[in-house]
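Quarterly update from the structural biology core.
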Amino acid sequence: MDLSNKLMNKLFQNSKNILGVLTRGTDYISKRPKYHPIPPDIHDLIRDVKEMDKKYQYDYIFFTTEDENLREIFVKNFSDKIRQIKPKIKINIALFTDNIIRLIRIFLFD
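Predicted structure, tokenized:
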């Protein structure tokens, strides 16, 4: 069994009815970078996920974000269904190419 299947089985016990939610926080909300969509307010996101869960009756909700405050709020609202992977290590790398500085974030997991 490959690594992705092992992870899926560990998190979701072979369930196929899963909603995945990714939201950005921190710099995307405060700096509003040009040409990037701004994520919804966490309370709007929770409302929308609750509506979808009521309609589709998900077994689990896979949630990921780099913002710990958003994570805590989301987990409080969906504690019985939430599944998440917290990175062990976060590495920020700055690259300078074509006179542009790019920030790359790498997350390492177990």
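Strands lie at 18-22, 60-64, 82-83, 89-97, 100-108.
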